[in-house]
Prior knowledge:
By secondary structure, the protein is α/β, with parallel strands linked by helices. Helix content is 39%, strand content 16%. The protein starts with a strand and ends in a 15-residue tail after the last helix. The longest helix is centred in the N-terminal third of the chain and has 18 residues, at 19-36. Helix 1 (19-36) packs parallel to helix 11 and helix 3 packs across helix 5. Strand 9, helix 7 (198-215) and strand 10 form a beta-alpha-beta unit. The protein has a domain at 1-11 and 229-352.
Amino acid sequence: MSVKFGIFDHLERRRDVSLDQQYRDRLEWVTQAEQAGFHCYHVAEHHHSPLCLAPNQAIYLAAVAQRTQRLLFGPLVYVLPLHHPVRLVEEIAMVDNLSDGRFQIGIGRGTGGGQEFAMWGGNPAENDERFEETLQILLQGLTHDFLSFEGKYYQFRELWMELKPKQMPYPPFWYAGNPVNAGKYGANFICFSPIEKLPEMMARYLSSWETQREQKDPTWPHVDEPLYGGSMHFFLADTDEEAAARARVAYQVYGTNFDKPVPVGATPQPRPAGPRTIYNPGVADFDTVRQWERLIVGSPRTVREYVERYVAESTCNYLVGSFQWGDLTHAEASRSLALFATEVMPHFVDAPVSASAE
Length: 358
C-alpha cells in the first residue's frame, strides 16, 4: 500500500546560529525534502516565542516557492482571527501564482482558545466568531470579482478583487485537530493521535466530509480527493540508542520553545487554556510522548517498522513528520531526513527517492 508523506515545520529558533543563516539553512533543507519525494510542506503560525521563525508565513513561503518546483506547501495553519481577510485573499493569490499553483490553505482558530489573539489586545471570547467570519470572507474574496460582506466584525462594499489564485476556484484547504470540523469545511485533515485511535477518528472525519460533499454547501470549501492522517516528530540515527539519546535532549528544548518570553520580573504570558495533555508540549516528558507516539525515534529499521504499522492499521492515506525541532542542527535534521527518505519512504511510495545527507 502506498501513502503520501508530508512535513510539518515550526521553524524553531536556534540561539547558536544567526537568524539569516537559519533561513538559508531551512530553505536548503526544504529543497532536500522536495528531492526526496515529499508531497507537501506545512508551516506553523506562532508569535512572540522561539517556536516560530515564520510568523508571516506568506513571506517565507514565497521564498520556498522560488527554491522548489514540485513540492506543495502552505500554512498549517493560518490563525484566521489574527489576519485581515482581504489582505489574506491577496497574499494567497500572490503566493499561489508565484509557485505556479502549489499553495495550500490551512485554516485554524489558534491555540488556547485565542491566546495570541488576546496578546494582541483582542477578546478571546470573539475568537470562534472571528474565525467563521474571516473564513466566509476569504472564500468570497477568492471566488468573486467584487467582495461585499456585512458581518459583526467586517463590512465591505463592492471591493474589486484584482488578484485571483492560480488554482481555481481556490487552492486546497487543510484543517488540523478536529475531524468533524475538518469534514464540515471540506478540508484535508491532519491530527495528533496514536495509531490505535486513528481509525475511529478518520471514520468521523470521512463521515463529516461525505455529508459536506453531498450537501455542497457553497459557504464552505471542498477538496475532491482528501488527504488525511496523523502527524508526529521523527528523529533517525544509525542506532536506536544514538537516536534516543539525542532526541531526549532536543525534546526538552522543543518544550521550552512554547513559552512566551517576558522581561525579568514581569508576569508571564498565559499558557494555552485547556487540559495539559499530549497536545501541550513541554508538559509531558520524553518517555511519555514516545509512548503516545507523538515522537518516533530510532534507527531506520525501527522507524520503518512503525510506518509499516501505521500504513497497515491507521486507515490513513497521509503521514506528516516533523524532522527539525528543539535544538537539532541543520546537519542533524538533514541526516535524519535523508535516512527517512532513503530507507523508509521507498517501502511505501512508488516515486523515486534521492536524498543526500551532510
